[in-house]
Design brief:
This is Beta-galactosidase GanA. It contains 20 helices and 33 strands. By secondary structure, the protein is an alpha/beta fold. Strands 15-14-16-17-24-23-22-19-20 form a nine-stranded mixed β-sheet, with helices on both faces.
């Protein structure tokens, strides 16, 4: 890389000793410098100020850590050591709460509820993002830190203020909102009230403003490369809760720091690759994007000073690398009695350093673009993001991963510029879509792209208001009715009521002889989108479906079978074995294939972990891809495939995503998975394989020719393997 590149381009591995208040009296500088070297980091994140100051700040109300004085400037000492080691320095802030003395001095800067009472968290007071605390005080603190120590940049932990479930009624908010929107603040959270929706959008705007305001301040004080960054979550729900429109925020940022330290309940490790790819699409694939990785036992419950199981950290980081994430170790406090936490990072970071040539300067290669958007999360998800939007999205991703398919998340506003990279766009219950987004999907389809949509995709506007019909009715071949079946909010698993005991019927019938053994019976062929389901006419469903009418020229491949009793078993027979209610509708015109999955197979695949739901969804996506898959894999399950291109080179990450513990951060063992057969279509203008290598096993691989493609078999993956093909 060129020597004159700014720090945020060249600093690829990061470390953070997240100081606690007693650290000024016990920090062991020599020990940490050795650890920096062992872990090959290029930059450190050092606690500077905010809630607690680790330097002798001139601001009287800037609460100092224990022992901080003119003679003991811990922050300053660590910065000096880092400079001595040739490391970049990011000064860390954590600024949204203040102690009592601050509250008494500046009551006008506090966030307040409808009764005018200040919002509190534990023994602190929460400051308002529209107050002088953000507009004036913090900017002065940033300037002071720059004057004292000239850090390369800044990061802030809790920069985004109150979450969306709490409205601030302080005088600043009331005045500024009225000036901007012409009305008083919304009286309560009510998604059907346009004023509340205005308030939500106004809050998003303010976070973008804060980002720009802080950058202006740090760049003015420290030069053009002294950038400020708020920590960003890799979780869509969390980002929405904090009004982080990452697409807008990252448009002008050359770097992103992810605070996305662990998977949530029920999630697997491949989610970290998903987050990495989703956010790289926004910040750019040339940007460095480190993610904080706890070396302590995070999860629920969390243990701040106990070691994270090594396997959990290995699997989370390996899946992060597969999504273009860079490593950043994170310890809480500078002194530890559980020293096992120091044994995890060196191996991970040393591998990363050794393999930089295949981890940077690359672009993703995938067959499927999976559509998401902030508006969909907010205005369709509303107060039920988990059930309405997060679960279907996660279910769709998991279905693709389990089937060995490759995907990249695509923001709905970027379809018009990026979708041509994919042969299929998958829209997992993207209910809220604006007209421009609909038009972009239509153009993609008209240009020969294939579209797979699920659930109630396109039935609502960007504000979440119901449209008369699916906005993509013409593309998907269905027109919306009013009746619905099942419940998207959850599943009635009571044996006595069995509200979820529903099925889908695959057409035409092949097994209606009900288990007859006469193999000479001629069974009708099915559409190839249903390949793999030959031996059944039904699949379990249990989900939600809106009755819709199928347009001419489109074919129904599956219908809905309404509920019938589970208990007692004598009653368990289909009273209505057949209906004409469509569940799965396809069409093929030229190169374009469309699938409307009216049944919410994505949500069922996630919530109910239903293997048939995942397999059927993945199968129709596979059919929509057609014969020309760029990269795919046959796996025994539990391995995610992610691929990248460099000039003359294809890079395929195979990551173990097998979580044997559903609780986050509790995986204490690596279970090797294999064999995995990777199929790579030869990219133009490559002719033959020059070399094939496995970067984790540090061995050569065998690439077998298979028509336009090559096939590489990897016997076993522990945490991960990276297959690198150099083309002749
Ligand atoms: Zn306020």
């Amino acid at each position: 890389m060129p020597a004159n590149e700014p720090w945020y381009r060249t600093s690829r591995r990061w470390g953070q000793t997240n100081l606690v208040e007693i650290d000024p009296e016990r920090y062991d500088d020599a020990w940490w410098r050795r650890y920096w070297r062992d872990t090959r980091i290029d930059g450190v994140i050092v606690n500077a100020g905010g809630i607690v100051a680790y330097y002798p700040s001139e601001f009287e109300l800037h609460h100092r850590a224990v022992g901080i004085s003119e003679q003991n400037d811990l922050y300053g000492r660590i910065v000096a050591s880092a400079r001595d080691e040739g490391l970049a320095v990011v000064a860390r802030m954590d600024s949204n709460r203040v102690a009592e003395d601050f509250f008494i001095a500046h009551p006008e800067w506090m966030a307040r509820d409808a009764d005018g009472e200040p919002y509190r968290a534990a023994d602190k007071w929460i400051t308002c993002v529209n107050s002088g605390y953000y507009n004036d005080y913090l900017l002065q603190v940033l300037a002071e830190i720059t004057r004292r120590s000239a850090p390369d940049g800044f990061a802030d932990n809790s920069w985004a203020g109150l979450p969306r479930d709490r409205i601030c009624y302080c005088e600043n908010c009331a005045r500024i909102f009225r000036e901007a929107k012409g009305s008083p603040l919304p009286a309560q959270i009510d998604w059907s009230d346009p004023t509340y929706r205005d308030w939500v959008r106004w809050n998003y705007d303010r976070r973008v403003e804060i980002w720009e305001l802080n950058n202006k301040a740090t760049q003015a004080a420290g030069g053009e490369h002294c950038i400020w960054m708020g920590m960003l979550s890799g979780d869509q729900k969390h980002a929405a809760n904090r009004f982080n429109d990452q697409r807008r925020i990252l448009r002008g940022s050359p770097f992103a720091m992810l605070d996305h330290q662990f998977r949530w309940f029920g999630e697997s490790f491949h989610q970290n690759a998903e987050a990495g790819k989703r956010i790289h699409e926004l910040v750019g694939w040339d940007a460095v994007m480190p993610e904080s990785m706890p070396m302590y036992s995070l999860g629920r419950p969390a243990f701040r000073v106990a070691a994270m199981p090594k396997a959990e950290a290995q699997l989370w980081s390996a899946n992060g690398f597969a999504g273009g994430i860079q490593p950043w170790w994170h310890h809480i406090g500078s002194h530890h009695e559980d020293r096992r936490q120091y044994s995890t990072a060196p191996e991970i970071f040393q591998w990363h350093e050794k393999n930089e040539d295949v981890l940077f300067d690359r672009t993703p290669v995938a067959d499927v673009g999976v559509v998401w958007s902030t508006d969909n999360t907010d205005f369709f998800g509303r107060d039920q993001i988990e059930e309405r939007t997060a679960s279907p999205y996660r279910g769709a991703i998991t279905a693709l991963v389990q089937a060995g398919l490759t995907y990249v998340p695509v923001h709905a506003d970027d379809i018009h510029t990026t979708a041509s990279r994919f042969s299929v766009l998958l829209l997992p219950n993207v209910g809220a879509m604006g007209d421009a987004q609909l038009e972009a999907v239509r153009e993609f389809h008209a240009a020969g792209g294939s579209v797979v949509a699920t659930g109630e995709t396109s039935l609502f506007t960007e504000d979440g208001e119901r449209r008369d019909d699916y906005g993509l009715a013409d593309v998907l071949g269905v027109t919306a009715g009013e009746s619905t079946h099942g419940d998207w909010r959850g599943t009635d698993v009571n044996m006595e009521t069995a509200g979820n005991h529903t099925y889908l019927r695959l057409l035409p019938a092949r097994n209606s002889d009900g288990g007859g053994t006469d193999v000479k019976v001629r069974r009708p062929a099915r559409h190839s989108a249903l390949d793999g389901f030959d031996d059944t006419d039904i699949v379990p469903f249990g989900g939600y479906l809106r009755e819709s009418r199928v347009l001419d020229g489109f074919e129904t491949l599956a219908t809905f079978i309404p509920r019938f009793p589970i208990y007692p078993p004598e009653t368990s027979w289909m009273s209505t074995p057949e209906t004409s209610i469509p569940a799965l509708v396809v069409s093929e015109r030229g190169e374009s294939r469309t699938v409307m999955v009216l049944a919410d197979l994505d949500r069922c695949g996630d919530r109910d972990q239903q293997p048939d739901a995942r397999a059927l969804l993945a199968r129709v996506v596979r059919w929509a891809i057609g014969e020309e898959s760029k990269v795919s894999a046959k796996t025994p399950g539990g391995v995610a495939v992610n691929a990248y291109a460099q000039p003359g080179r294809t890079i395929v990450h195979l990551t173990n995503s097998l979580a044997t513990t559903n609780l986050a951060a509790r995986q204490d063992h690596l279970y090797p998975v294999g064999p995995i057969e990777v199929r790579i279509t030869r990219p133009e203008p490559a002719s033959a394989v020059k070399s094939a290598a496995l970067r984790v096993a540090e061995a050569a691989a065998t690439a077998k020719e298979d028509g336009d493609a090559i096939v590489v078999t990897v016997d076993v993956v522990k945490a991960h393997e990276v297959v690198v093909i150099d083309w002749a």
